[in-house]
Every structure is written in C-alpha cells, then in structure tokens.
Records
---
Amino acid sequence: MRGPAGHGVPPVGRGARIVVPVSFALLLVAFGAAVVFFGVIPRVQAKAALDQRTAERLLEKPRLSAVPAVSAGADEKIDLPARLQALVAAAIFPREGGYVKEIRADIGDKVTAGQVLAVIDTPVLDQQILAVTANVATSIAKVKQAEAQAKSSDATIRRLKSVDHGVVSQQSIDDAQGRADVDTAAVVAANAELDAQKANLERLRQQKDLATIVAPFAGEIGERGYDVGDLVIADKTDSNKPIYRLADRAHMRVFIDLPQSAAVRVEPGHEIRLTVRELPGRVFVGKIVRISSAMDTATRTRLAEARVENPELELLPGMFADASLTIPGAARGVLVPGEALLIRDGKAQIAVVSNDGKIEYRNVAIGRDSGAKIEILEGIAPGESVVINLARQLAPGTAVEIVERLDK
C-alpha cells in the first residue's frame, strides 16, 4: 500500500512496532540486575557479617585482671615517709663584738674540730687588756711595797723585844706590834687586789680567744653569714645571724611518724631500710634509737628517731625519704592490693573469680591498711583470685576471663 497522496514515507510494519519495546525492557532488566548485584548484595553481606560479629561479641567473656590473695604473715612490712637531719648541727654565733678581720672557711668546706674559721678584730677589747695588764703590774708593785713594809715592822718588833725591859717601855712595844699587824694586813689586801686584777686579765684574754671562731666539731660548712669588714655584735642570738652553720653529715638522724596501728609494735632496735627517690638503687640501713612516749594529738602519730650512717655524704639534711620497717604482728586474714577494694551499697566488698570462672562479690572485714596492701580479716580465703581495677560493675555470676596484669 501506499501512503496518502503527496507523502513518500513508507508505512511502518507491525513487526517493527514490537522490536522497540522489547529492547527497552531488556535494558531495564539488565540495569536492575546490576543494581542488585553491586548494591543490594554487598549490603546484605555486610549486615550478615555485622550480625555475626555482634553475636560473637555477645558470647565473648569480659576480661579481667586478678591476683591471688596471700596469707598475712606474722611480720608486716610497712613503708612510711621519713625526714632527714644531720646528727650534729650547730649555728655558730659570735661571743665577742668587733669587725670581721679574716674569713678562712666558706660554704661547702669540710673542716676539722678546732680549725680556725674566722677572726674578729676587737680594738676596744685590746685596749681593755692593755689597761688591765698595767693594773696587774701596779698591783704587783703594791704587793712588794706592802711586803717590804711588813718585813720592816717585823724587824722592829724583834729588836724591841730583844732589849731589856727596863730600857724600852711596853707601850712602845705595843705600838710597834700594832704597826706590824697593819702592815701584814696591807700585804694580804695587796695580794687580793693582785688576784682580782689577774682574774680580770684572764677573763679579757678568754674573751679575746672567743674572737677567733673555731669549729666545735668536724663537719661541713652549710652557711656563712658575714664578710670581711662586717660589724659583729656579740651575744645577740635573737636578732643576730650566725657567722656559720656547721653540720656533720656522716651520721644522719631519721625522723618517722608511726601511725597508731604500728606505734605500739615498733621498739628501739628495729631495723629500717631507707631509700631516696633521687638516689635510685641505694639502700641505707639503720636502727630505731628512741621513740616518743606519747602520740601527737594533732596527727595521731608517734615520733620515732633512727640513725643511719652516711659515709659517702650522699644524704642531705632536710631530705625526704621512704623508710621500710618490718614489724611483728599476729598472723590473721589475707593481704590483697588496695585497688581491689570496692564500695557497693555502702559496704566494703571484694570481687572474686570463682573456680568455675564466674564473678562474685564478697562482703569483707578490713584490718590493717598500709595503702598498697589491705588486710582482709573475713570474707576472702588464701589463694582465691581477687579482681583488681574493675572498670565496670558486672552482674554477679557473670562468666569472665582472667588475663595477665599488664602494669605489674
């Protein structure tokens, strides 16, 4: 057939009209298959993997660190802070005023007993010594004069008594005897005055000796308070600074504040082991030498003093240290780390892993507490696994897995 007149387009057949829709449908099917293959299937697979991991995580046991509880021994080791002081230390104050003439030692110098440390110039005292020295010489001359006069009076008495009684009257003899007694008393007075002047001179010379500052014992200079030319005022220890501070560091005093739990169990003779953080690896061994007779009402501690040898002068007065003491005590309960203690519902508890691997919470009675270790009197048996650093509260009966502690 032909189309309408005036058009040269041939007519479309029925077979051609069917081919176009089928191709479009195939294209849509292919696109849908691609979407399913590249989009839906990976999501389904990812969700399935997530569900599997979630299920595995739900089945996984919580991991906890635990340590065995150990029996509390008859002896207890405690660590306490301590403070150090030199066994012998002195502030050397001037006993005589004047001006500093010489400085022969300075801070850090090691000195011996009797060594001259400084010299003070004392012009006023020097003049006093000269004046008293002259007084002593005058007194010596007076003694000699009095002795000569007494000797003359004694000779006169002897002559008068040797003459016949009829020649010399008794009155003359008595008068001569009186003069002789006066002259003898003058000798005694002159000698007393001489002794006084000599004593005064000796006192001034001793004062002069005090102007030379010497070390009272062997030690080390820790402080120097004066320079050459400084004015020194004597015997003003309340407002005057010392010329030197001297300390013997070869022997140290260690002061320890004992808590009430240990105060009655530590006695003189107990050994201590002293460590200082700034001296790693060094351990100083000493002994308690005396203990206070009463507790300090403010701190509820009892002061103990120990002695430690410091031959290498490593320890310094004023340092803080850690003192370890082993003290006797009754064997009771178990010891657990302090970090294992829990407070649940207002009660002290310990988390324990049972033999079947489940967590339990035990109410406990606490004994001595040293910080790092706590004594448990009731509730825990030796050898039981005690949980430490419990990050979250697990329900009782939860199955757990014990892992090795990483920070030990």
---
Amino acid sequence: MAYACAMPNLTESESLALASQIASLQTEHRDLDAITEHLEATGFTDQLALRRLKKRKLQLKDDIEQLKMLLVPDIPA
C-alpha cells in the first residue's frame, strides 16, 4: 500500500476514516498474532505458511504506522 509522504490538513471525516482503517488493520494484526502464536504452540509444521502469515503481520504493522503518520500534522520548520 503506497501513501503520500505528507497530506495537507485532513478534514474531520478524513481523519475519522483513517482512524477507522487503522483500527481495522490493528484488529487484523492482533488476529494474525494470535493465529501465529497458536500455530507455533501446537507444533504447526508448514513453515512456509507460517512465514507468510508473519510477513503479512509485518506488512500490516508498516501500513498502520504509515496511516498513523498521516494523522499527525506536519510541524513547520
């Protein structure tokens, strides 16, 4: 997912939409975390599948951070 480096002042509805998207991604990240922990604890042997889940989890984390940065207004130098 590609995001612009800086967004000019967001409207309230845009901020709410971003916050909602962040919450959704955080939920998916937590779900994947629980799934990977469970699979590792039960001795899941498909390492490729586990690696893909972990990679998706890392991508979600990056996406969440990018969206959070959009919510923080730029500070003029």
---
Amino acid sequence: MTWRAKGLLVGVALLLPGCGNGLAGTYEDSMGLTQLRFERGGVVVQSSDLGGVERQMRYEVDGDRIRIRHPDVEGAALVLTRVDDKTLSGPMGVTFRHVSD
C-alpha cells in the first residue's frame, strides 16, 4: 500500500466519527421556550430559559426518528422526526430548528 493510500485511509477513519448520525448542536422550539442540545455519545440536554431548568437525557437515532428517553420514568420517551438537516418535528406540531453547533 502506498503512502498516499495509507494517508487517505487515515483521513477517512478520522472523519467517520464526526459523521455519525448528523445530529449535533442546539435545536430550539418555534417560541424559543425550549432548547435541545445534542452532544456526542447519545446525550441530549433539554433546557428552558423560562424556568431555568436543565435536564440531561439519553437519545437514540433510528433512521429519521430520534427517541429521547426520560431518565426518571421507565419506558417514557419523546419521539422526534428529522424533517431535514435543520428541522425536527415533535408531537402536536412542535417544531425544533437548528440554532447553533
């Protein structure tokens, strides 16, 4: 294997973890009341400026579905649908837009 080919393989290997599921950054609801900050390792932090509350939860991605698991209630989850790269849709018409990385 040539040095060039080895360099290409190393470059691709370094980029793959960053690709993941493409879900990263902060999303905010249309009224600006709730933010969801998706982090690496399946962690999402939900916060609200209104109540000053912040809650860390776990999330899983399955295709275009994002399941956010409630840490205190077994089996409870919020399911969001990825509409496009910048938009998530939730229950009852709630929409979250990507606002920062």
---
Amino acid sequence: MANSQSALKRVRQTKTRTEQSRVLKTRIKTTRKAADAALAEGDAAKISDAVTTFLSMTDRAVKRGAVHANYSSRMKSRYASKAAAASA
C-alpha cells in the first residue's frame, strides 16, 4: 500500500483515469459493432453515419490518451476502404 501523500494521490489519479479510459474504450467497441452491422446491412446512409461516428470516437479516445494514435489511423484506413467498397 502507498505510504506517502504523493503515492496516495497517484493511486487516486490512476483509478480515475482507468475508469475514464474504460468508458472510452467501451464506446469505441459499441460504435465499431454498429459500423460492422451497417456494413453488413449495406445501406449507404447508415454506413456513412456509423463509420463516421466510429472514427470520431477513436479520435476522441486518442485525444484523451485512452488508445494509441496508430490504432485510430489503422481503423480510419480500414473502415474508409470498407465504406468505399460498400458504396461502390
């Protein structure tokens, strides 16, 4: 267990940040599933909305430090390709 005041503060900070990151990661997973469902369905309007929402969520998580920037870039590339192929 932490003994110093600064160590106790670090424990509190870590707990808060972990919870915030968990929320963001859960939102990413949910919107990714929605994007996958829209791609499977094939409706161009739904695909556009779902993919845009998913990519926006990944960018927000990167800004908050919950996920790595390369993850967001990789997903943008993959889902932009999938959306283009589905609308073509």
